[in-house]
Design brief:
Order of helices and strands: HEEEHEHHHH
Mean pLDDT: 83
Strand order of the largest sheet: 1-2
Shape: globular
Radius of gyration: 17 Å
Largest sheet: 2 strands, antiparallel
Strand content: 5-15%
Low-confidence stretches: none
Helix content: 40-55%
Number of helices: 6
Length: 131
């Protein structure tokens, strides 16, 4: 989880967020980078794709079709079947938006807002476990 002040482009926060990733594997090791990243068109930029390639992270990012950006034969390729897994992220975001305090940020301090986001995640997880 990485939170930052409002009004920043998500693609700029993505690199910082990816640096905070720590996932335990079944063998007990800690992975610091995901194998694959699925993102929407808002993350479509050459610099971000270059960053992912440099870290060895596979990606599925649909290209924005702008004629001045890529020549038609040079559009980045992506797997639409793999992109369908993005609904998991969208569903999680929708669950977080059920908490008004998280959706509309009233707190001035980022630490206070972070606490409310973590509380919302705990409540969502407990609700899923108790079903």
């Amino acid at each position: 989880l990485h939170l930052d002040s409002a009004q920043k482009a998500e693609v700029r926060l993505a690199e910082t967020t990816l640096k905070t990733v720590k996932v335990r594997t079944r063998a007990g090791q800690v992975r610091t980078r995901p194998r694959h990243l699925i993102a929407d068109k808002g993350y479509d930029s050459r610099s971000f794709r270059r960053y992912l390639r440099g870290r060895g992270i596979g990606h599925t990012i649909p290209p924005i079709r702008r004629p001045e950006r890529f020549r038609p034969r040079r559009l980045p390729r992506y797997d639409p079947l793999r992109y369908r897994q993005r609904w998991i992220i969208e569903r999680t975001t929708a669950w977080l938006q059920n908490f008004r305090r998280v959706m509309v940020r009233h707190e001035r301090l980022l630490t206070t807002y972070r606490a409310f986001v973590l509380l919302a995640c705990i409540i969502i997880t407990l609700g899923a476990l108790l079903k």
